[in-house]
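Fig. S4 source data, part A: sequence.
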Amino acid sequence: MIGASASVSGTMAAAIRFAFVKGSFLSFNRGDANAAAKVPALSFARALRNPRVLAFLVVWFGVNLIFGIGLLAIGADGASVAWQAHIGGFFAGLVLFSLFDPVSRQHGDAAGAV
């Protein structure tokens, strides 16, 4: 099962690879836009060691688990959330982001976390 929500989940996962990097577009202390566009994303291994990324992962999976087992429902009666697609899209975005990152990772692991 895949759809728009799986794509959004994948995009969210990909974003956490660069959202917590100092100087990136989403960081609190970025410089100009040209410099921010050249900041490489965290490597997969380094992202999994970042406490803010890990906190985001716990919250995201917790929310999807709550919706997945039906403790909280949104929308029409009897409609279910395709939580399997959300998780699949999320893993795909997290793991495959490096294939689509346009910024060279020559200095990628030297980028600091915010």
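Fig. S4 source data, part B ends here. Residues 51-68 form the longest helix (18 residues).
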